[in-house]
Structures are given as C-alpha cells and as structure tokens.
C-alpha cells in the first residue's frame, strides 16, 4: 500500500472540499432556480385561480343570461303562437268580411231590383185600387135598394154618391156617403144618417123643417121617424168601415149589413 504524505492528503482534502463546495453551490443554484420556478408557478397558479374565478363568474353570468334569454325565447314563442293564432283569425275574419261585403253588394243589387219592382207594384196597386173603387161605386149604384130592414119597420138604404153634408150648421171637411133611414110604420119620410168629425152618427132633419119656428120645429122633429139604438150602432159601424176604405163600397159590405 502506498503511503501518502501529509501534503498529498491535504491536497486531496482541499480538492474534496472544493468539489463539495461546487456541488453545494450547484444545489444552491438549483434550489434558487426551483424556488424561482415555484414562485413563478405559484404566481401563475394565483393568476390562474383569479382567471378561473373570473371565468366562473363570467360563465355564471352567461348562465343567467342564457336562462334569461331562454325565458325571453319562451315568451317570444308564446307571443309568436298568439300572433299566428290572431293572424289565422284575422285571415278567417277577412274572408268572412269579404264574403259579407259580396253578400251586401248582392243584397243592394237585389234591393234596388225590389225597389224598382215595388214601384211598379205600387203603380199597379194604385190602378187596381182605383179600379176597385170605380167598380164598388158601380156595384153600390146597382144595389141602391134597401139593404137593411127589421121587424119594427126600420129600413136603411145607401145613397151611393159622395155628398158634402152640414152638421150642426157646419159643413163637413170632406165628402162622404150617407145612409137614408125610414120607418114603414111611421111614414115614408127619409132622414139622412152621416158621420160627424168625431165619427159619431148624426140624424139629419129635413131642410123644410128649419123654416118653421122653434116651437113648431120641435113638434115636427118629435114626429119624425127616430132610428133605434141598434140601427144607429149599425149605421155608425157601417159608415166608419166605408170611411176606412176611402168610401169605397164592397159587395160584402152590403151583404154584411143585410145579415146584421
């Protein structure tokens, strides 16, 4: 075994120490680098955490926005459905309105035709009524004979011509037909029965009677034939009916009086 000298050992110790120092320095450098890297990484982690927090907040906000948008979208869909329903309803109503307008137009044309036809009918009806009135007068004139009598001798005849009559000293405003009343049991004196302005019947006094004094006139009137209440009622109803027909006399009117 080689024996080393003290100097050699000292050199070896110094070299070993220096190697250890170099390794230590290297480890220190590695440690410092690792520390710096760790600090950088920690800072990056902190930044990442902050970024993640911000991202999460943004995501949450987006989530709220998305939910809000979904709610808005749902509301919009409901409105769209309502608008589509309204549009469909309006379309149907528009078609109905169009059909109604067309129907109104047709009715207006039809109404115009009816009005034209109605005017023709009015003219025809006017002529028809005129013909009836003329024919009724002819019928009445041909049937001037007695058309009512009763067991008490009372008789009524219709005078078929329109006359201006005087009632209570006043001339009537319109001409009218009058009835001639007589009673076989009291004599052949005829008295006229007419309507006054209130549609009440009045019995005429022969014109010559008015030339007498008041006392004589009263006595004469008492002896004139006086229509019974039944005859007065029949006369009133009969004359009112003729008046409502513009004084046109129908054959059935005379028959009705005969059957009374």
Description:
With 260 residues, the chain is an alpha+beta fold. The chain has a domain of 114 residues. The protein contains 4 helices and 7 strands. The strands form 2 sheets. It has a 5-stranded antiparallel β-sheet with strand order 1-2-5-6-7. It has a two-stranded antiparallel ribbon with strand order 3-4. Strand 3 and strand 4 form a beta hairpin. The longest helix is centred in the first third of the chain and has 137 residues. The chain is rod-shaped. The chain starts with 5 loop residues before the first helix and ends with a helix. The mean pLDDT is 77.
Characterize this entry briefly.
The chain has helices spanning 6-142, 214-223, 229-244, 251-259; strands at 148-149, 154-163, 166-167, 170-171, 176-183, 187-195, 201-203. With 260 residues, it is α+β, with helices and mostly antiparallel strands. The chain has a 5-stranded antiparallel beta sheet. The chain has a two-stranded antiparallel sheet with strand order 3-4.
SSE map:
Layout: H1 6-142, E1 148-149, E2 154-163, E3 166-167, E4 170-171, E5 176-183, E6 187-195, E7 201-203, H2 214-223, H3 229-244, H4 251-259
Antiparallel strand pairs: 1-2, 2-5, 3-4, 5-6, 6-7
Overall form: rod-shaped
Query: How many DSSP helices?
Result: 4
- What is the strand tally? 7
What's the main sheet like? 5 strands, antiparallel
Instruction: Report the C-alpha radius of gyration, rounded.
Output: 66 Å
Order of helices and strands: HEEEEEEEHHH
What is the strand arrangement across the widest sheet? 1-2-5-6-7
Q: Give average pLDDT, whole number.
A: 77
Q: What structural class is derived from the secondary structure elements? A: alpha+beta
Distance between the ends = 186 Å
Roughly how much helix do the residues carry, as a percent range?
55-70%
- β-sheet strand percentage: 5-15%
Ranges where pLDDT stays below 50 over 5 or more residues in a row are none
Keywords: Coiled coil
Coiled coil: 66-117
């Amino acid at each position: 075994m080689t024996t080393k000298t003290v100097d050699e050992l000292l050199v070896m110790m110094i070299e070993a120490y220096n190697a250890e120092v170099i390794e230590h320095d290297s480890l220190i450098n590695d440690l410092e680098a690792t520390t710096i890297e760790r600090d950088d990484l920690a800072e990056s982690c902190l930044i990442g955490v902050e970024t993640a927090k911000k991202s999460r907040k943004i995501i949450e906000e987006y989530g709220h926005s998305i939910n809000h948008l979904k709610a808005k979208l749902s509301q919009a869909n409901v409105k769209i459905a309502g608008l589509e329903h309204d549009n469909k309803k309006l379309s149907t109503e528009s078609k109905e309105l169009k059909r109604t307008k067309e129907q109104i137009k047709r009715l207006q044309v039809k109404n115009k035709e009816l009005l034209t036809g109605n005017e023709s009918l009015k003219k025809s009806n006017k002529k028809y009524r005129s013909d009836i009135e003329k024919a009724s007068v002819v019928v009445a004139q041909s049937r001037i004979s007695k058309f009512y009598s009763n067991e008490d001798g009372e008789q009524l005849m219709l005078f078929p011509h329109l006359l201006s009559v005087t009632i209570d000293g006043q001339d009537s405003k319109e001409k009218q037909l009058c009835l001639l009343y007589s009673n076989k049991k009291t004599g052949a004196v005829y008295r006229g029965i007419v309507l006054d302005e209130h549609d009440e019947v009045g019995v005429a006094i022969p014109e010559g009677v008015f030339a007498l004094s008041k006392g004589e006139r009263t006595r004469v009137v008492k002896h004139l034939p006086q229509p019974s209440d039944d005859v007065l009622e029949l006369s009133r109803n009969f004359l009112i009916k003729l008046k409502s027909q513009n004084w046109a006399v129908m054959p059935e009117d005379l028959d009705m009086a005969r059957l009374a």
